[in-house]
Amino acid sequence: MFNNAPPDAGDGWPISRAGTYPCMIVLGDLSDWNQPTPACDGIYFHEVSELDASLLFSRQPDIIISPLFNRSADALELALLLGRLSFQGRYLVVCNHVPDPALVTRDLRHAAPQLDVQVVRGRVAQAS
Q: How many domains, the chain?
């Protein structure tokens, strides 16, 4: 039987395509996440307006996280943009109140079938 899980460094953390720990881009305002800027290597906070091919090339993220709704774009718009930019990692969408995350996940996958996308419940401030 094949194991599709990525290799790990012996500590349970998967090794990225670049051979290091995963790189994560968190999109949106820090206020959306109710968090101060983390002091953690490999996690980068960026405004949605900064998402372009050069950002993906420079950071080479394994995971991109965004709220379902953001001040500048929603997850559908971001999924379509990530598809156009040929993003190859995982796109994780976080939302406080979504009755059926699986249904929203299916909708996003239908709109951007090339993406590995998943919607999960989590704490995110409401976009205003």
A: 1
